[in-house]
Design brief:
By secondary structure, the chain is mostly helical. It has one domain. The model has no long low-confidence stretch (mean pLDDT 91).
């Protein structure tokens, strides 16, 4: 058993992380390879115009063109697929950071070391951040490589900013699931509640603009701060990034405080 929980966590999860990197890289490159087949076609943009607005917003967000580099990548990857993959990864890691150790009966061994509970949560969260960073870099490099292969005119910086924004969104929900898992010790409950809130937040951000009275409610959805400024086209909105970072920090603090005070069933 390594005394450094951070390093132990990374070591224990390295194999699954490699599969995640390989899977996301394959998805990114595979998606990019299809771009030349639609880049010069006007039929896809016409199809987009013919879609009902509600359906278009739910599936494609604010995308207005499927043939531009930004429109294609947003519609195929950044509106739904990439953020959801980040969410699945971080929620799985966050919910299991404390709760899974407790359910397996290994938490007692971790707590037997001279380590404060809040530090255990911090080390677990830091390991999740590092793993998320690895996936972020792999996603960006895959998209960049795909863009070079198909000669897509899009900047490396914009790809990096959009990918980083998706990673921040993932960390928001990952930190929330960490807080739930730390407070309850129940991984399934943490995953279920977080997944439900993520779906609700996505739908709120997608459909709120369709009704004037509901549009201000978008501010309560983390997806608004992820995609509201369209980072792929306009770059990162530092205010939006700051809001997401603030949510992450708040949830981690809650995780530390609740776990520090809770009776642990080991």
């Amino acid at each position: 058993m390594l005394r450094n929980v951070f390093l132990k966590t990374l070591r224990d999860q390295r194999n699954s992380l490699m599969w995640w990197v390989a899977g996301i890289a394959a998805l990114a490159i595979f998606t990019m390879l299809f771009y030349p087949s639609i880049a010069d076609s006007t039929e896809f943009d016409q199809m987009l115009e013919d879609l009902p607005e509600a359906l278009s917003r739910a599936m494609l967000g604010d995308v207005t063109s499927l043939t531009s580099p930004e429109g294609y990548l947003n519609s195929q990857l950044f509106v739904f697929m990439i953020p959801m993959l980040f969410l699945v990864f971080t929620v799985n890691r966050g919910s299991g950071a404390i709760a899974a150790e407790e359910e397996r009966g290994t938490l007692e061994l971790l707590l037997s070391y001279p380590l404060r509970r809040w530090r255990l949560v911090a080390d677990k969260f830091l390991a999740m951040c590092v793993a998320t960073l690895v996936i972020t870099i792999a996603t960006w490099l895959s998209l960049l490589g795909g863009a070079v292969i198909v000669d897509m005119e899009i900047g490396a910086g914009r790809l990096a900013e959009a990918t980083l924004s998706a990673a921040m969104l993932g960390l928001v929900f990952g930190a929330f699931s960490l807080a739930l898992g730390s407070a309850t010790g129940k991984r399934t409950l943490s995953v279920g509640i977080t997944a439900g809130l993520a779906v609700a937040a996505y739908l709120l951000n997608a459909f709120a603009p369709l009704a004037d009275w509901l549009e201000p409610a978008r501010w309560f959805s983390p997806f608004y701060y992820y995609s509201g400024g369209d980072p792929l086209s306009n770059g990162l909105d530092l205010v939006h990034v700051g809001v997401m970072a603030g949510l992450v920090a708040a949830f981690v603090v809650v995780a530390m405080l609740t776990f520090e005070r809770r009776d642990v069933g080991v």
